[in-house]
Every structure is written in structure tokens, then in C-alpha cells.
């Protein structure tokens, strides 16, 4: 493989930001505008954040090329003429709500194994097909990211005839196609024909092609068994003839066909393709399809909580779920990082990702010290992540926002944030509103992870609680200490000292505080939390007055 088609070489440059190197390579490859940047996926089930890899990396490259004055189309192919190979464990309606198979007609899916996704009924009954449903769901998830993507259906490309010329060319040169693919796959035999026909009797896709008549534009077939995910989908045995628009090319040929029909200039892909389908795709593109392959780029897969993303195993999280706890610009930042470094996307530790983004933003606005390389990266990446660069923006630290989320009083949230210096006096109203929106997200994060911030401050009324005399006296003394204006760590230390002074077990004394403020037996680190609340309220509550 030459350097021109090595999907790793495009990233092997001195650029501080990987997308600048890709944009350089795409400009050298493209023969004029519009430049076409493509991703793609088979709509096999619930879209998840793994699909954002191609969508957001393509978006970043597209934006850089637009900065350079180019017209850019960002397209995403739905490989919806692929066959339904297995029944997923979970599905999702168009609002992104995940459901189990018991809530839909799973039997209808089982009866349609082996058929193209666009021939399988929508299990929710709201779209034209299974393929249309999950393509639409992915389109909606993409809209939430603020990315303008043109979705293209493979089924429509076949049925409208846009794939017909390239399909005819592949079949006309099927001996060359067979020999080329045999370099990469052992299962290619002398009878192999690079085409799947759709059986007119049962609707399944079959790869047993018995004759090709290019003058008539038809292929003859026998519907035979198909292997799918280790299982066998029984063919019906029917023998028939169909035209070129009523079937599909195998993936290894369909991918280069997309490059030719759509005029693709750049496409990123996971490392699983780098050693298999990409080299064969390059070879097939040049020697069978007669098109120059686009600039390719490899990205590393990322894990979710240390485990591989898997729709079949249920280890997924959707874009909508992530945007409930993260601003879109923070999510984009995750995909703006170096593509070849493996990372874990952890909901449990999402605060660390937010902190990274906040630092990138602070570096961009020259608010913190940074190395030259970090500053150069921030200058290139940050403007691509936000809808508008605005220096007046305000960010409340994520874990502090989670603390604020323990109260549902909007005025109190703002009051505490101002008192702690996280909202400047001169902050514009839009900046305050956006800053406080992080509290809602951090509150949801605390709830779904059940972490140390997942507690609700009982501010409106005091929980019912009775204490023995030593505990009551210690609480009264703690109230006096808080009234003196001590900081959080000093209050925390005083809690330990008072427990010892009044011979109250320290765990029970903390528990008394948690019952007063949260009506619970546990909670966050109590001293710093109390220091963040308004002093009058804390003192009155410790005295059991309100």
C-alpha cells in the first residue's frame, strides 16, 4: 500500500491538530468543489455514541475545509439494503426510548431474517421499514449534535439506478473482481459472482448466482442458505431471474461503488477496516470499479466503562442520553482528540471529561498557563466545538454544579454560584442561563450514577428527626461555629471535634446532619457542603428551627 492510500500515514505529520493534516491531504486529492466527506453504517439497531465517531470527525474536517473556502458535502450512507442478520436485544422508538423485544413484534423480525433492512417491517409501525426507522433515529441523534449531515439510502441508490452502471461494470469484469477479492478472502471460489439477488419468492438475499445477462440487465439465482453471525438462515430453494436494481453488491464492492457514485474525497473508519476491507477496497476501486479511492483515516474504537460498545450485548449509550448530562460542545470535544489513541468513555467519570474541556476553553481564552503545543491545539480545536466563540461565557465546575443540583431552588443555585465566585457580577443574562443549565445536567449525572452527589436538599421543610441530649447540644454548638463564618474544611474538622467532645459516635453525628438536611442516613462531605449554602439557613436548620 502506498503512502497515498495508507490510512495511518495521513495522521503522521507535525501538525498540532490531526484534522489540519487530513484537510491538507483532502485538498491534494480533490479535483474541485464540492468536496465530499462520507461516513456510513448499516442500520442494524439502536444508534449509539460509537456512530458519532465518523459523524463528528467528518464534521471537524468539513469545518476546517470550509474555513479554507471550500464547498463541502458531508454525507452519511445508510447501508440499508444489507440483510437483517440477527434480532437485537433492545430497540428504540423515534424518541430514543429504549425498549425490550417483549414490547414490540419480535416474531415479525424473526420471520424476516435474511431480508434487506428496507424490506423488514418497522417493529414500531411508524416508518416504512426497519431500515427507515433506525436511519431516521440516527438522523435525529445527529441533529442533536448540531451537525448538518445529508443521509443517503443505499436502497434508493439501487432502486433509482444510480448504482446500476457501477454494478454492471463489476459484473462485466467479474473474473477480475473474483481474482482481486481472492487476494483478501479465502472463501472466493471459481463460481463466485459479486452480487446478491433478492429472491422474488421469500425476499431473502442470496449469493448463489447461476447466470449473468448484461444485455438484458438481469441475473439468475437460486435461493440458498446464508450464514449470519454463526447461524444459518435457510434459503427457500426458489430459482428465478431479477434485474440489477433488485439486488446488491457485496460490501467489499459496494464500498468502492459508493466512492464512485457519490464522488467521495474523504472517509474515516475504525481500525478493524484498516487491515481488511480498506486494502481490498483500494484494490477493487482501482482495478474493478475504476475510481481513485478517497483519503482514508483510521480511528481507534473507544470503550464504554472499559467494555466494548455492543448493541447485541446491550452495552451502549445513546447520544440523547449523553446530552442529558453533557453540553454538545463537550461531547464534540471527545471526538476532537487524537484519533489513534484508545480511550474509555465513562459515564461514572464524566466530570473528568468536562474538566478537560473547561481547561481547553480556558487555554483558548488565555485564562490559564499552558505549553505552546496545548495552546496551539486549543486555538485550532475550540472554535470547531462551540456554536459561537464568546469570551463572556461562564462555566460552573461540573462537580460544583452537581452540588448545586442537590437543591431545586433556581435562585439559591445562582446565589451560591455567585458567592463561590463561579458567576461574575457582570455576567450577561444568557451566560448565566447557560452556566446554570449545567446544573440540570450534573444533577441527572448524579441521579443515573447514584454517586456522592445524588442527594436532595430538604430546604422547604425540615425532616422529622429526634436527637438525644448530647447530639442536640453538639448540633447547637455546630450552629454557633457555622455562624462565625468558617470555611468548609474547618466545619468538617469541627464536626469531628464536637463528636468527641460530646461523646457522640462520629458516624451518628454525621448521620444527624444528613437527616436534618437530606432526610437520609448518608450524603456528601458535610462540612464543605454546608459552607456553600446560605449561612442563615444552615444555622437555623442545625438549631432545628426551620
TrEMBL record:
It holds the Pfam family tRNA-synt_1f. InterPro entries: aa-tRNA-synth_I_codon-bd_sub2, aa-tRNA-synth_I_CS, aa_tRNA-synth_I_cd-bd_sf, Lys-tRNA-ligase, Lys-tRNA-ligase_SC_fold, Rossmann-like_a/b/a_fold. One of its GO terms (molecular function) is lysine-tRNA ligase activity. PROSITE patterns: AA_TRNA_LIGASE_I (PS00178). A motif ('KMSKS' region) lies at residues 308-312. It catalyses: tRNA(Lys) + L-lysine + ATP = L-lysyl-tRNA(Lys) + AMP + diphosphate. Its EC number is 6.1.1.6. A motif ('HIGH' region) lies at residues 43-51. Its main location: cytoplasm. HAMAP family: Lys_tRNA_synth_class1. One of its GO terms (biological process) is lysyl-tRNA aminoacylation. This is Lysine--tRNA ligase. Belongs to the class-I aminoacyl-tRNA synthetase family. GO terms for cellular component: cytoplasm. It comes from the Archaea. NCBIfam families: lysS_arch. It is found in: Cytoplasm. Keywords: Aminoacyl-tRNA synthetase, ATP-binding, Cytoplasm, Ligase, Nucleotide-binding, Protein biosynthesis. It is an enzyme of class 6 (ligase).
